[in-house]
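pasting for the record
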Amino acid sequence: MAYLRTGLSLTATLTLSVTALAAPAFAQEGPARLGVLSFSQGLELTDNAILAVSPTGDSLISTTRLGLDMGTETRTESLRFNIGTELIGDIFGETEDDFEFGNYSAGLNYRREGASSLFALTGTYRERQLDDEVLDPTSAFFGIDLGPDVLIIDSGTVTATGLGARLQTGIGGPFELDLKAEYADRDYEDVVDADLVDNTRATFDALARLRPNQALTYRLRAGYDLLEEDDLTSTETTTTYIGAGVEGATAGGLSFFGDLLYDRAEIDTGTTSVRDGIGLDLGLTQERNNGTFGLAVASRIDDEGRRTSAIASRAMELPTGALSFSLGVVDEESDDSLRVAGGVNYLRATPRGGLTVALSQDITASDGDVFRDTRLEVGFVEEINMISAFEARLGYVMSDELSGSDDDKETVATLTYRRDLTEDWQMRAGYERTILSTEGGTDRTQNSIFLNVERDFAFGF
């Protein structure tokens, strides 16, 4: 299996996603209720060239997506529920059995806010079919975090279940408490890639703030993370931290925070290894007339060892957009050299559209190997008239193993035409070209043409 060691989502989605409309403003006298039934139909003609060394031939994939989003909300409480599924099949397939329902999803969100408190609960379920395709584990469209920080070509099924809770009390007062807990379970069936293993993760974070005055706040932090992986050694990784520090702001627009922490990571693979030590987390932000200056310094320990970084940043507003950039250094314990990291983000608005450019370089570690991840994404939108527009996107990602030869690259170029067919129906059509280069020097190119229509039906209940 070929994969890229990066978490950046660059591949444009080829079918329109289910749209969940937010509930409008609500009157005080009673709850407002709104439901949205979403429908979309997509066709994608692809040559499947990146799926294997020997391409599988042309496919005409039909994807019918159905979604239901329902919610009720008052001034202090909100409750939302959503479900979705897809009917997917290859029109060029040999049997009608190729068409089947899959990619199920469900979610439940509850939120209650008081004058100085917040309570929130979330629950999610996602089931995703992997049909010999390139799958980005961080894709918000699929809603599944696959675990390893990679782009993967594989088949099978992944199921992810998540639960989360948050409680805040005393917000803005002399004593504030913020508690967060999350649980995630991920299961794979019929997959080939050895990196895709069943796992569960439980995390808990607590932050307490004590404010003797509005300019200075004392804080205590603590956290716990348990990752259990169903691999050959049944790896169990426990990470904990505890720390104390201060945060505050000055009349001159300088805000700051600083924490001194103790980090501990215990990795059990049959034999136990422990990494621990003192950590530091500092941040400064200076407000300016047209933006901010920032400085972030951190030295923390996790299961990969100590990571130390110092990053300076600048963000500014421009007459026709915005510009931000950062530059600094990163030192990973398993790397012998100090590495440069940073990025640039640029936004320019035009009379009928806009241009966005994002370029970044970061240093990451995985299983003792250090990688330099370079990412570039350029997007351009231009309205043709009141009902149609043209979009272009170019994405590039490169992951370079600094201590080896595992170098992976992906380039994606997409041209899209979108149009309102009626007041309710929308259409998107376009072309996408993907070039994938993986370890060993194998380059594969895939071409796709796509057409999609969609509509949302809103109703009250």
